[in-house]
Amino acid sequence: MSARVFDVAVVGGGLHGLSAALHLCRAGKRVVVLEKSWVGRHASGATAAGVRTLNRDVGELDLALESMEMWHRISALVGDDCGFHPNGQICVADRPEHLAKLEQRVSSLSAAGYQHEQIIDAQELRRLVPAINPQCLGASISRIDGAADPHRTLAAFRRSAELAGAVIRQGCGVTGIERRGQDWALALQGPAVEVDGESIVVPFIVNAAGAWAGRIAGMVGDEIPLGTKASMMIVTERLAPLVKPVVSIMGRSLSFKQSDQGTLVIGGGLQGIADLDAESSSVRMGVLSKGARAATDVFPSVRNVRMVRVWSGLEAKTADLLPVVCPAVNAPGVFHAFGYSGHGFELVPVVGATLTDLITQGRTRRPIAALDARRLMAAV
Ligand SMILES: Cc1cc2nc3c(=O)[nH]c(=O)nc-3n(C[C@H](O)[C@H](O)[C@H](O)COP(=O)(O)OP(=O)(O)OC[C@H]3O[C@@H](n4cnc5c(N)ncnc54)[C@H](O)[C@@H]3O)c2cc1C
């Protein structure tokens, strides 16, 4: 059994676990990250890495806006720009009723004091995205948004967390958690666990276990109903520069962008098949073809472009599609951060800081009331 050498065990070596570890170490905590596979194995390695406030639920909007400010100075946090380009995100409308919905949203945001979303007309849309289908009528835009490079982001958060003192143990799955006095003992299993029955004893736990976070929550007495997402992506061959902002379309599943390397990265939440026990997901080509169709409808010039790879990635989904970021309900010293429902990449910098507030000060000024697990537990 390990002595108590760490203050915090972070369960999960995805971006949220790494961000929590980084912020906690900089606040003086001794942190171990326990990852059953390897860093970035699941959602954080499969992500499209869109950095979006556009069309965010108001329940997480203030947090997302603070995170966006952090993205705009991400080098100061992790010593690398993570390939982040704030070229904007655009949601186009190709029907009058869809444009009316976008206009309604932007005016109600504006009435509530939010100015980051605006409406642009067809002419401005074509100026910003010349390759767009001329039948598109207009769009909403958030000019502060953009996209990053997921693998640079993972490498930067990992490097910074380790430089700050975090110990990352890959191949170490948490299989049980029990109360031991004022502390928690986490039982470990996996290829990198050398001592049979090894456990880690800590006063604080961060549950950043992604698609499996409901199981970790259950180990400490929080039964939180969660669904699973297996979002699919397509990447194409490299093309000459075609589009700078990330483009989606109202009423259909599409997110369309071009990477620095020239490949088109096409997603938007179409779902493959998830298997939590096998820790894998698979692509449904029939469903994915709808994403390809939406892409060619919005960008007719890409009709003959070759797809070179498709994939899917696993993460947890909540009933209201808002994440869970809060102290555990039934377990003092345990903190949840999961259920990002397909849009957690943007929140990575700020959620780690929020968890650090909760652990080091017992409270946070950041707006997380709408992200409390009790809203989901009450609905059971
Ligand atoms: C295809 C796809 C596209 C996406 N596109 C976007 C986008 O454009 N913009 C955006 O904002 N978001 C996007 N997302 C969502 C975003 O990527 C995720 O919200 C984010 O990466 C979640 O990070 P995480 O650290 O919480 O989870 P993960 O990266 O999944 O990390 C959780 C880790 O916990 C580990 N773990 C689980 N159980 C245990 C255990 N018992 N013991 C030890 N370790 C354990 C897992 O192995 C895993 O590595 C996308 C997601 C996918 C799948």
Automatic annotation (TrEMBL):
Pfam family, one: DAO
Domain FAD dependent oxidoreductase, residue spans: 7-358
Alphabetized UniProt keyword annotations: Oxidoreductase
Gene3D superfamilies according to UniProt: D-Amino Acid Oxidase, subunit A, domain 2 (3.30.9.10), FAD/NAD(P)-binding domain (3.50.50.60)
Protein name, per record: FAD-binding oxidoreductase
